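Worked example 2:
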Amino acid sequence: MSQDRVKLSLTILLLMFSVYSTSSGNHYQNGLTALKAGKMDEAAVNLKKALKNDPSNPVIKLAYASILEPMEAEKVYQELASNDAVADSIRAEALSCLGSYFYVQKKFKESAEFYRRAAKADPKPVYRHRWALAVYGSGDEEAAQSIWYTLSLEYGDNISRMAQYYLGLIHFKRADYDKAYSCFLKTGNAEPENAWTIAALAGKLECAAHLGMADKVELYTTQLKPYKHNLLERDLLQLTISDNIKLTDHDKTDEKTGSNTGDSRQLFTLQVGAFGSPENASNLQKKLSENFEDVTVIPVTHSDQVFYRVRTGTFSSREEAEKYGKKELEKSGLNYQVVPK
């Protein structure tokens, strides 16, 4: 895609938002503001009014879909995605939402196709990144690597750095630690607002350990300590050695008794879903809260997007969490994953 087309798409989208934010009633803008603040009921009221006043407006429809139940939202996204009269930027976002809809269901092939179409409709690199994630989930590692490699060359920003992180994971999985280390080095410094950069730092530590780089192991261990209880989780990290970071003094384990002398006892929880929109996460949270206790939504920044993870329960061991999940969640038709809390 040319830079001129990119600028044109952005200009069209900005003009749309400008027009609707200054229109009479201002329900659309109020709805967006409420969404950002997590005020779902207020957002629903305003977006419904906005859609009633202008039922054919694709921008309003796109926002309105975010407050609907997943199956109803899918219908709206499908309608927008199949309408050639709709601006490419809107169609692309609708296609991306459909990709996310299937991704959380682990239907990776369907998800990859929607993300591919989104990337074709709009040159935003984030669509190609999501496409790569879905392709990777489907088992086509080579295709995912090709997409991420292209992204690493075309952009000099977070997208390029993030692509290097995923390329590093692929090389690490193949036990090619030299290439993996080279990729992780290109991700830059750890940034708490971007969880993958912390995972990349852990990747450097992993590779350094495998390559016998004692001085680097010591350096990365020290750098990683402040983030041990941050957004760094095993399900994001996908690595292992970083879990063996030396504990700080208040986290030490008594060598004689084997008991923990601090308050660092690892707890576990059950992750039931992960969404790109707070609305969908909030809807699931409300549903789960009707039958389960301690249901929370955890925002996690991954690349340039915030994902909202829906979790329930607190357990003292992975086995206890797994037992509860099989007994209570599976019988309710819910998929889950045991993760550290």
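The longest strand covers residues 305-315. The longest helix spans residues 3-21.
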